[in-house]
Write a structure and sequence with these properties.
alpha+beta; three-stranded antiparallel β-sheet; 17 strands; about 15% helix
């Protein structure tokens, strides 16, 4: 739930689902927003030993460089009641579907290598000798056709597209509008935050910060460590605001500000995304910077 845009609206809509099912290695904030019927199914993490009927099992992992390698857990499971992801999915399927002699849920759960054999049969070019190669040092390279200059297009050649405008922002600059980019710290994986020491940027003890160019701060009448709020500068009927941020001068392009993901997801409209991939535009959010608490102080 924390990973998606329009977080405040999503937190309202999420519990209205008829059913939510989460296979989880640990508790997370999504569990606080269950559907009308909700199941949390705890599972083994990749670091834990996974022992099935045929012995200790290994899973395969593909990294961002298309290298595939095996992974075997070495820690004792947190609980004897934990099941693996494969055991959970196969168990649900076995209970919900009629028996089929071509589908061996129990056999696949007992021996993960059988699943890899099926993957190899389905994709022989990518996964040749899957089980034999997955524990080669560094893994084996799955391969990317474009890396070999193989273009899977109608013409067999690379296709270049032209943008509709000479900006990737999707909005125009205007006075008072900043381009917000969201960022992660070095001690963070996806939306999981392990600590508050961002060695990348020298920020310690907090994530509630806004990085700004010193000249932009001066123009806005802001000083180091002033408290500010970000307001989404897209007018489509929904107010999106994130307060409680401490502004810090930083070597960043003028007109651009930066703060952390996923905290800033409350500022991203669900419709603000790339036109082709639909990826949320988390690196270019139009925002205004306001002093935090101005409205309350004025009212008081």
């Amino acid at each position: 739930l924390r990973a998606v845009p329009d977080q405040a609206r999503m937190e309202t809509a999420w519990p209205q689902q008829e059913l939510t099912v989460m296979v989880s290695t640990k508790l997370n904030r999504s569990h606080l927003f269950p559907g009308k019927a909700a199941y949390v199914l705890p599972c083994l993490s990749r670091a834990e030993r996974d022992v099935q009927a045929t012995g200790e099992q290994a899973v395969s992992v593909e990294d961002s460089f298309s290298m595939i390698h095996g992974s075997t857990g070495h820690r004792p499971p947190a609980s004897d009641a934990l099941r693996s992801e494969l055991a959970i999915v196969a168990g649900i399927a076995r209970a919900a579907l009629p028996p089929n002699p071509k589908i061996d849920w129990e056999g696949w759960t007992a021996d993960y290598s059988l699943v890899r054999d099926l993957i190899e049969t389905t994709y022989p070019d990518d996964f040749r000798d899957f089980n034999a190669r997955m524990f080669e040092p560094g893994g084996f390279y799955r391969g990317i056709p474009a890396h070999r200059r193989v273009w899977k297009t109608d013409s067999g050649r690379a296709v270049f597209t032209t943008p509709g405008q000479l900006t990737s922002l999707g909005f125009q600059d205007r006075p008072g509008r900043f381009r917000l980019l969201t960022m992660r710290s070095n001690d963070q994986f996806n939306t999981t935050i392990y600590g508050y020491s961002d060695r990348f940027r020298g920020i310690e003890g907090t994530r509630d910060v806004l990085l700004m160019h010193a000249e932009d701060m001066a123009e806005a009448g802001l000083r180091k460590e002033d408290r500010v709020a970000l307001v989404c500068d897209i007018d489509e009927g929904h107010h999106r605001r994130l307060g409680g941020l401490t502004v810090l001068p930083y070597n960043i392009p003028r007109g651009t500000v930066a703060s952390y993901y996923p905290e800033c997801n409350v500022l991203i409209p669900i419709g603000h995304h790339d036109t082709l991939s639909k990826t949320p535009a988390s690196k270019s959010i139009p925002v205004r910077v306001e002093r935090d608490g101005v409205a309350e102080e004025t009212a008081a």
